[in-house]
């Protein structure tokens, strides 16, 4: 029995290598990768331990309590991504890391278990992307005809990994365009929502991928594969019964963040029998509710300008706004969507050295702070929280100084996020290893 390893605990680990031929199997001559930071997560997703692969690519977590865990990996060198998952039939020679999440599947350890089969193969590959347009399918046939050139703005687009993990979200622009960049290869699907009332999705897959609509009646596409460096521009979506002609000729609708309110402005060139503008807000881009109303001029052939102040905005979340433009007969149309995000009060801090090797010193300006509890998060480039620190703030001093040991981090770029009550700030952090 190894020193320090007790029979009532378990052991977990193994090997990280460069999969030169991208086959997902450890082949002779493929080099180990040292310096990869490896995290052990409990069943709730909390980090319970971390380590770094040694010169031979090995890592090990000893004295692990019985339970269910996952293993997560950062990537070194920059640009590396996990290779094919569970290739071949030998669990001791394949890669066990999901290409999207950079984590293994859950692993259950009983007392005394020794699992040395959780390997990670990495490959260097160019990143992929997917984009296209949501268009007004005027004849409802599911085919984007040459004369159908009107895009549908304000549609919520969500990108999911094939296992249902939400990867990214966006909203179609004024021309109906959307795009997701910097994606590792893998299997994905898209979901579209936030359609205007009375509209629906076109028939699915009735022609070639370059011209038909890819979403089903619920707004979901089928699963598609992105290869390394691929740009998929064939995921276009048709919308039936979309009427881009508003009750008014809306010149613009936009928003600004002011000190104590979100300021919305819009202008029209002409109005015909227009009764009112109902201002609607959402915090998820999908479920809108009315927050105010502005009376329209009614009938006008000259420039009309309007504004609205939202004093009940939501802090630290996107605020989505749209206009419901209502005619005198109560028919209506919607404007484009405006998104404003008002952050919490910003803190002021500095840190050194930069780049950091092992230890970082943070100096926080205490002026105007009332809270005494500080939370510091280290976040990787994929938005994953690596570690959380807690510290106190002495508001009697002008500066609070904190030293953190970051020797567990691999070389690369991270974000350092500090929160004190309702105030926060985020800055970029670069780690280098000599």
CATH topology of the largest domain: Immunoglobulin-like
The average pLDDT value, as a whole number, equals 85
What distance lies between the first and last C-alpha atoms, to the nearest angstrom? 35 Å
Largest sheet entry? 5 strands, mixed
Could you tell me the radius of gyration in angstroms? 27 Å
**Count of beta strands:** 34
Provide the structure class: mainly beta
How many domains comprise the coordinates? 4
The named CATH superfamily of the largest domain? Immunoglobulins
In the predicted model, the low-confidence regions spanning at least 5 consecutive residues are: 1-6
Question: What is the 3D shape?
Answer: globular
Percent strand equals: over 45%
CATH architecture classification name of the largest domain: Sandwich
The residue fraction in helices comes out at under 10%
What do you see in this structure?
By secondary structure, this protein is mainly beta. The chain is 0% helix and 48% strand. It folds into four domains: 10-124, Immunoglobulins (Immunoglobulin-like, Sandwich); 128-240, Sandwich (Immunoglobulin-like), CATH 2.60.40; 248-341, Immunoglobulins (Immunoglobulin-like, Sandwich); 345-431, Immunoglobulin-like (Sandwich). It has strands spanning 10-18, 37-42, 47-52, 58-64, 67-73, 80-82, 107-109, 114-115, 120-124, 128-136, 156-161, 166-171, 177-183, 186-193, 200-201, 224-226, 231-232, 237-240, 248-257, 262-271, 274-282, 289-295, 304-310, 318-327, 332-334, 338-341, 345-346, 349-352, 359-365, 373-380, 385-392, 399-405, 412-420, 423-431. Strands 1, 4, 6, 8 and 9 form a five-stranded mixed β-sheet that branches. Strands 10, 13, 15, 17 and 18 form a five-stranded mixed β-sheet that branches. Strands 21, 22, 24, 25 and 26 form a five-stranded antiparallel β-sheet that branches.
């Amino acid at each position: 029995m190894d020193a320090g390893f007790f029979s009532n605990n378990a052991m977990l680990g193994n090997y990280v290598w460069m999969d030169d031929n991208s086959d997902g199997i450890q082949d002779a001559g493929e080099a180990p990768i040292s310096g990869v930071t490896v995290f052990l997560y409990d069943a709730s997703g909390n980090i319970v331990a971390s380590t770094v692969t040694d010169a031979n690519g090995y890592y090990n977590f000893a004295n692990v309590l019985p339970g269910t865990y996952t293993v997560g990996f950062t990537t070194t060198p920059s640009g590396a991504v996990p290779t094919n998952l569970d290739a071949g039939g030998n669990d001791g020679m394949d890669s066990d890391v999901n290409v999207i999440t950079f984590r293994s599947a859950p692993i259950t350890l009983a007392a005394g278990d020794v699992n040395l089969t959780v390997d990670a193969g990495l490959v260097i590959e160019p990143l992929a992307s997917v984009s296209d347009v949501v268009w007004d399918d005027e004849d409802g046939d599911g085919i984007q005809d040459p004369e159908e050139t009107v895009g549908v703005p304000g549609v919520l687009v969500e990108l999911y990994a094939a296992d249902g993990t939400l990867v990214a979200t966006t909203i179609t622009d004024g021309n109906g365009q959307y795009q997701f960049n910097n994606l590792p290869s893998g299997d994905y699907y898209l979901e579209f929502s936030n359609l205007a009332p009375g509209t629906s999705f076109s028939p699915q897959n009735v022609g070639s991928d370059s011209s038909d609509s890819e979403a089903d009646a619920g707004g979901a596409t089928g699963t598609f594969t992105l290869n390394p460096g691929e740009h998929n521009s064939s995921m276009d979506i048709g919308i039936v019964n979309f009427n881009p002609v508003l009750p008014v000729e809306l010149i613009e609708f936009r928003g600004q963040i002011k000190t104590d309110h979100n300021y919305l402005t819009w202008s029209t060139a002409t109005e015909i029998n227009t009764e009112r503008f109902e201002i609607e807000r959402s915090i998820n881009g999908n479920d809108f509710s009315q927050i105010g109303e502005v009376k329209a001029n009614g009938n006008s052939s000259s420039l009309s300008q309007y504004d609205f102040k939202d004093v009940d905005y939501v802090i630290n979340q996107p605020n989505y706004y749209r206009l419901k433009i209502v005619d005198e007969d109560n028919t209506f149309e919607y404007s484009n969507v405006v998104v404003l995000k008002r952050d919490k009060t910003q803190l002021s801090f500095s840190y050194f050295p930069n780049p950091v090797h092992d230890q970082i010193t943070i100096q926080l300006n205490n002026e105007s702070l009332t809270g005494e509890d500080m939370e510091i998060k280290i976040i990787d480039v994929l938005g994953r929280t690596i570690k959380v620190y807690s510290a106190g703030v002495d508001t009697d001093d002008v500066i609070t100084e904190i030293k953190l040991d970051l020797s567990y981090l691999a070389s690369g770029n991270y974000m350092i996020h500090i929160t004190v009550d309702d105030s926060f700030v985020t800055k970029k952090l670069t780690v280098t290893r000599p």
